[in-house]
């Protein structure tokens, strides 16, 4: 049993934490705040675009690696991604994620586009449409983030995966989540939808505005804690329903996040929440601990190995100063792609921004390496958005990279025990 | 490798300009979850702050309980709760309700009530008295009130026999907080006995209030005076000594709130703040250094545990869980709730009482279902709230440790 410190609690940090627990390690997870899971769609994206729409994500990884030899997926092959994704799906269970990592599904978004993803929540799966389907998108007047007209019109114009079209119309119901509130978020609705009485009111209201034979698209707010909430709605309406994820706060994302955080806490991980890791303590090329800024005084958490999962630029793991110098804030790790003259260009809708590919380069064990390719610290491993050379949101590859790298990092930890073992083997080989 | 201090990191990062409007804080706020009267941390925090320019533009910020759940959740390091506390102080300046001044004077209440404890307790138990108090002062009739004791901690310390064993580990300073000095003296006594059992010479300097209640009510001037006076008192016990506290929330005032919320920058505060350890934090540190006596008597029990919001805000995790589970047979169930609702004095106020009860509802239910006889929580006001609303006796973690060491009841 080794002492492992995991930094960050996004999809990568939480997955790495639980994988380390399963291996019998004693884990401390330190995170500045809640991670990005509840900002996403609550699905598992492996690869969506390259740049054309991807049908079979794992099959296409080899082509991606050929084109971008330094892409994280080139270091993590299809097997590693399959292992990571399956492990994650097992962690959250079939109430929360279903599907097949080999094959993408295409699900309607809140603006009525069809978005590729590998695994999705069961409440979303009826959104796989085929030619001739009739669909109604139902909004709520008091919900501020869902415009059924926009979603319906765009969806009606979209070519479905089978080449056909669906007939899509839009309608509204009038049902405040709480008295006197005119602009509630999906989260407010999801909380009241956990209550069977409100659920009944909702079903009654929706029933009045739908026609027989229509599939019903609803904003993703069908319950936060109760995994059967959406099934009851479907049964009550007597037709297929699908949840459409909205902008944050993302209810499907919160379901995933809460499930994982509960697992982490119940596993008696030392859960240090709300503190930032400021740096590490190193000895002979190894980290012996990390320093966290808790209130009043800094605390050193001893570590045999560290998994660094602080996210990317978007979570403040990387910082760009006014001299166009980008650096990694925790360990000042060497960064790939940082010496570009124009890290950000002014054309918002134009070519991808070079800054978003900046990150750490890693070896097969997910250890950040320097320009020569040797590990910065023997026992520092990285996972998730901190890894360089992916354009995660354009490719829709952020989730897959995160879980695959987290599992790989946890499975190849360099602790004093493993280091001693491999040292013994090496010397044997020398003889 | 690093010489950046917490304060420097926070000061360089924690401005509202770091807000990316991600809504993560909104999902963590226990108040906006139960009432539409409060628009949530992102809105009253980094968003409204842009328009305040030192003035107050909105009144909804008064519904923020300052529980700090938003600050903890924010991945960008925006100090939302701190911004709110500052905005509230500005808003209430010049027209501070008498009630808010009264409930903040914890030591005053303690000194007042001790000599007349039986009468005070009786009066506070009577419905008609509480109804008048609600009408005149604005403290809700059902809000939990402390039980006054006939003997203060100082009184006990003076009378009790000296410890039989000589100290083997040197001196340590004990900070009991107002409640620990006047109302919950039992917790303080047990803490002192445990520390003595571990070999410490426990120094208990005369100590006043940390000013937390004044601070959370926006009375920064009085709070600053209180906290600085307390720092001097704690320093008088000896230089460089560790200061241990059983008052989960008051420890937070010394460690960070006085500096971060009120901008107090005095050397004595930084000195005391850096030496302060919350009791479970201190004992778990000892354990991890291999220096804690773990000769505990078995106690087969499942206990609900709630970490107070102001304890979680100290960013050290929940050391009480691991500590209590060192006792063979103890299994802890963590509440998973951000706040019990009381948030210091918030839930006492007549216009906020119902909100506070709604905030705590899931916690009270969880406590009752997990163990109808005993719950654990690290801060006094939260324990009173949990006890009053769930009917379950609620104690500080040190009670379990004291019992597991087989120590006698304090006399
Ligand atoms: C606008 C946008 C859209 C995106 N869309 C998609 C998409 O459609 N599909 C897709 O697959 N991916 C998408 N991504 C990418 C995806 O969100 C990320 O790749 C993924 O969230 C990374 O997860 P993570 O666990 O590595 O980091 P995060 O989820 O960012 O978590 C990082 C964690 O580390 C903590 N932390 C950071 N520094 C420290 C420190 N020093 N000490 C302690 N804790 C620290 C943070 O508080 C946080 O909890 C998108 C990203 C953005 C910004
Ligand atoms: S969590 Fe932080 S960054 Fe996100 S909206 Fe709230 S204050 Fe802004
Ligand atoms: S301090 Fe608590 S009540 Fe106030 S905004 Fe933050 S989470 Fe909400």
What does this protein look like?
The complex is a heterodimer of chains A (431) and B (411). Chain A has helices spanning 11-22, 57-67, 72-75, 78-92, 148-157, 186-193, 196-207, 229-237, 251-266, 392-395, 398-411, 416-430; strands at residues 3-7, 26-31, 98-99, 105-108, 114-117, 119-120, 134-140, 167-173, 215-219, 241-244, 270-273, 276-283, 286-293, 298-302, 305-308, 318-320, 326-328, 380-382. With 431 residues, chain A is of the alpha/beta class. Chain A folds into 2 domains: 3-94 and 255-341 and 352-428, FAD/NAD(P)-binding domain; 110-244, no CATH class. Chain A has a 5-stranded parallel beta sheet, covered by helices on one side. A 4-stranded parallel beta sheet of chain A has the order 8-7-9-10, with helices on both faces. In chain A, helix 4 crosses helix 11. Chain A starts with a strand and ends with a helix. Mean pLDDT of chain A is 94; it is low at 424-431. In chain B, the strands form 2 sheets. Chain B has a 4-stranded parallel beta sheet, sandwiched between helices. In chain B, strands 6-5-7-8 form a 4-stranded parallel beta sheet. Chain B has helices spanning 6-13, 24-28, 41-52, 69-73, 80-92, 98-103, 106-113, 117-125, 127-137, 153-159, 177-182, 185-197, 212-216, 220-235, 248-262, 267-275, 279-288, 309-312, 319-324, 353-370, 380-390, 397-404, and strands spanning 171-175, 201-203, 243-245, 276-278, 301-306, 330-334, 375-377, 394-395. With 411 residues, chain B is of the alpha/beta class. The longest helix of chain B is centred in the C-terminal third of the chain and has 18 residues, at 353-370. In chain B, helix 14 (220-235) crosses helix 15 (248-262). Among the domains of chain B are: 3-92, Alpha-helical ferredoxin (Fumarate Reductase Iron-sulfur Protein, Chain B, domain 2, Orthogonal Bundle); 290-404, Rossmann fold (3-Layer(aba) Sandwich). Residues 1-13 of chain B have low confidence and may be disordered. The structure holds flavin-adenine dinucleotide and iron/sulfur cluster (SF4) (2 copies).
């Amino acid at each position: 049993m080794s002492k492992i410190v995991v930094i960050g609690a996004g999809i990568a940090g939480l997955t790495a934490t639980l994988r380390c627990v399963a291996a019998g390690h004693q884990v401390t997870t330190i995170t500045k705040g809640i991670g990005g899971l509840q900002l996403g769609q609550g699905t598992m994206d492996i690869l969506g675009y390259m740049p054309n729409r991807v049908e079979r994500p794992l099959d296409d990884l080899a082509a991606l690696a050929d084109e971008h030899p330094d892409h994280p997926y080139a270091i993590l092959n299809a097997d590693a991604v399959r292992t990571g994704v399956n492990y994650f799906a097992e962690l959250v269970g079939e109430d929360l994620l279903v599907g097949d990592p080999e094959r993408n599904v295409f699900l309607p978004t809140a603006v009525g586009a069809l978005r590729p993803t590998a695994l999705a929540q069961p409440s979303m799966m009826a959104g796989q449409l085929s030619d001739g389907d009739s669909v109604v998108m139902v909004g709520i007047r008091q919900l501020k983030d869902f415009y059924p007209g926009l979603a319906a019109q765009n969806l009606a114009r979209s070519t479905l995966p089978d080449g056909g079209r669906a007939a899509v119309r839009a309608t509204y119901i009038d049902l405040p989540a709480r008295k006197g509130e005119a602009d509630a978020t999906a989260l407010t609705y999801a909380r009241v939808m956990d209550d069977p009485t409100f659920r009944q009111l909702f079903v009654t209201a929706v029933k009045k505005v739908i026609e027989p034979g229509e599939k019903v698209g609803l904003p993703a707010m069908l319950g936060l804690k109760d995994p059967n909430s959406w099934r009851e709605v479907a049964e009550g309406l007597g037709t297929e329903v699908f949840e459409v994820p909205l902008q944050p706060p993302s209810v499907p994302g919160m379901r995933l996040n809460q499930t994982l955080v509960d697992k982490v806490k119940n596993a008696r991980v030392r859960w240090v929440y709300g503190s930032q890791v400021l740096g590490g303590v190193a000895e002979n090329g190894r980290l012996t601990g990390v320093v966290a800024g808790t209130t009043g005084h800094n605390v050193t958490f001893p570590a045999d190995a560290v998994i660094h999962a602080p996210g990317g630029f978007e979570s403040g793991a990387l910082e760009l100063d006014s001299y166009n110098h980008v650096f990694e804030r925790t360990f000042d790790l060497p960064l790939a792609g940082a010496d570009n003259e124009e890290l950000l260009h002014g054309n918002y809708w134009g070519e991808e921004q070079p800054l978003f590919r900046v990150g750490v380069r890693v070896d097969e064990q997910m250890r950040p390496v320097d320009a020569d390719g040797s590990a910065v610290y023997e026992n520092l491993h990285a996972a998730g958005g901190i890894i360089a050379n992916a354009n995660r949101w354009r490719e829709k590859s952020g989730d897959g990279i995160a879980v695959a790298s987290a599992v790989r990092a946890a499975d190849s930890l360099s602790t004093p025990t493993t280091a001693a073992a491999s040292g013994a083997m090496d010397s044997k080989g020398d003889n | 490798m690093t010489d950046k201090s917490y304060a420097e990191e926070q000061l360089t990062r924690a401005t509202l300009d770091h807000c990316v409007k991600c809504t993560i804080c909104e999902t963590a706020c226990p108040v906006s979850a139960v009432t539409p009267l409060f628009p949530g941390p992102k809105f009253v925090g980094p968003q409204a702050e842009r328009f305040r320019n030192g003035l107050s533009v909105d009144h909804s910020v008064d519904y923020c309980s300052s529980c700090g759940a938003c600050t903890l959740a924010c991945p960008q390091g925006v100090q939302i709760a701190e911004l709110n506390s500052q905005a509230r102080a500005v808003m209430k300046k010049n027209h501070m309700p008498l009630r808010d001044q009264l409930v903040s004077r914890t030591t005053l209440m303690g000194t007042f009530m001790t000599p007349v404890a039986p009468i005070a307790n009786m009066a506070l138990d009577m419905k008609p008295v509480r109804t008048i108090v609600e009408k005149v002062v604005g403290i809700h009739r059902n809000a939990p009130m402390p039980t006054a004791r006939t003997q203060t901690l100082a009184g006990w310390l003076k009378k009790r026999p000296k410890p039989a064993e000589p100290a083997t580990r040197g001196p340590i300073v004990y900070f009991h907080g107002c409640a620990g000095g006047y109302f919950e003296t039992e917790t303080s006594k047990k803490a002192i006995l445990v520390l003595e059992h571990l070999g410490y010479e426990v120094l208990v300097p005369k100590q006043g209030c940390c000013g937390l209640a004044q601070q959370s009510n926006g009375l920064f001037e009085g709070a600053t005076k209180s906290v600085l006076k307390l720092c001097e008192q704690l320093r008088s016990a000896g230089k460089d000594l560790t200061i241990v506290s059983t008052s989960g929330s008051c420890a937070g005032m010394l460690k960070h709130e006085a500096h971060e919320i009120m901008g107090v920058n005095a050397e004595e505060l930084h000195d005391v703040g850096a030496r302060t350890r919350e009791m479970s934090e201190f004992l778990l540190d000892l354990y991890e250094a291999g220096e804690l006596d773990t000769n505990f008597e078995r106690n087969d029990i499942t206990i609900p545990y709630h970490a107070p919001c102001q304890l979680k805000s100290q960013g050290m995790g929940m050391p009480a869980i691991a500590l209590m589970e060192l006792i063979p047979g103890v299994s802890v169930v963590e509440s998973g709730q951000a706040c019990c609702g009381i948030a210091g004095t918030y839930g006492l106020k007549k216009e906020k009482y119902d909100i506070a009860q709604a905030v705590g509802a899931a916690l009270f239910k969880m406590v009752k279902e997990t163990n109808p006889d005993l719950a654990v929580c690290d801060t006094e006001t939260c324990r009173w709230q949990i006890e009053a609303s769930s009917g379950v006796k609620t104690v500080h973690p040190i009670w379990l440790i004291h019992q597991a060491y087989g120590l006698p009841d304090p006399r």
